[in-house]
Write a structure and sequence with these properties.
Layout: E1 4-10, E2 13-21, E3 26-30, H1 41-45, E4 52-56, H2 73-85, E5 91-95, H3 97-108, E6 115-119, H4 127-134, H5 140-150, E7 155-156, H6 158-170, H7 183-192, E8 194-196, E9 202-204, H8 208-214, E10 237-244, H9 251-259, E11 264-272, H10 275-278, H11 280-294
Helix pairs in contact: 2-3, 6-7
């Protein structure tokens, strides 16, 4: 994989990441639930010398040696990551859950980004509705569904783990969620989802317990995964809305978020939810344009 493995100290642990290199403004790429920093490799390969791109595995994901003990830790880590990189005003780009993470960190004022980009990762419910909906993730049937569909928390021996990685790579083009991604990229992402255990087995991360923790924020928290998270955000914000993504049928609500404040723009793209892996060149173009808009000295 193109890039250099790096680490960052955060509260209660260490995050692992990849420094994809490049010169110029810092761009922090934040993945979604179930993925890891490897998902950004093809996007980073198109960024060239326009910026310095870095991605980290969130808590409970990939090779990071930290799990969540509160619902907010995973997005609060972005402040420690930016500090470890020496970046005062990075551009934050988040996909899916990572889109909320960059929004929450900005709204909380713990990072002061030059701009943020949210890739099919908006939150549109009012707080009361969001609190009600989040309760779903704590039902046994929801946990069982995550185990069955995504194998979260699966423990397996090395042979079966590698067989599963190869199966995912072979089925990339027939998988509606990942169709268009490179099989080798899929192989790298899925392999990084597994970490070795003391008993010689491998654990598929994140675990269901990790997801349960991160979907149980304090209802009275100042920053909550509901539409009001966007109110305090003053920096330029780009929302990327894929035509077949999670929020395609709520485009009018997404437009309302964009129109509620100056300096926001909506970019619609012909893609499914997994934009970073299936449309990396198009997403890289959006990021490069954001770099140019916020750093006029960048060629």
């Amino acid at each position: 994989m193109w890039g250099r493995e790096i680490r960052a100290d955060v509260t209660g642990g260490i995050l692992s990441g990849i420094d994809f290199g490049g010169e110029g403004p810092g761009v922090l790429l934040v993945h979604g639930t179930g993925h890891n920093c490897a998902a950004w490799a093809d996007v980073a390969s198109h960024l060239g010398t326009h910026c310095h791109a870095v991605a980290f595995d969130l808590r409970g994901h990939g090779y990071s040696e930290a799990g969540s003990r509160t619902a907010e830790q995973y997005w609060r880590d972005l402040a420690d990551v930016a500090a470890s990189l020496g970046w005062e005003r990075p551009i934050l780009v988040g996909h899916s859950t990572g889109g909320y993470a960059v929004s929450a960190a900005t709204a909380a004022g713990i990072v002061t980004p030059a701009a943020i980009a949210v890739i099919d990762g908006v939150v549109l419910e009012d707080r009361a509705t969001a609190i009600h909906d989040n309760a779903h993730w704590h039902k046994p049937e929801a946990a069982q569904r995550l185990r069955e569909i995504y194998l979260y928390g699966w423990r397996v021996d090395r042979h079966d783990m590698l067989d599963y990685v190869e199966q995912c790579a072979r089925e990339t083009d027939t998988d509606g969620f990942n169709a268009g991604a490179r099989p080798e990229l899929m192989r790298q992402v899925i392999r990084r989802c597994f970490t070795s255990c003391a008993d010689g087995q491998y654990l598929r991360r994140p675990t269901v317990e990790e997801i349960t923790m991160t979907t149980a924020p304090d209802p009275d928290a100042v920053v909550y995964p509901s539409v009001d998270v966007y109110e305090p955000i003053e920096c330029p914000m780009t929302i990327v809305l894929p035509s077949d993504g999670f929020y395609a049928r709520r485009a009018d609500e997404v437009r309302s978020v964009v129109q509620s404040s100056q300096g926001r723009r909506l970019i619609e793209i012909d893609a499914g939810h997994n934009v970073p892996m299936t449309r990396p060149a198009e997403l890289a173009t959006i990021i490069i344009d954001l770099v140019r808009q916020t750093h006029t000295d960048v060629e």
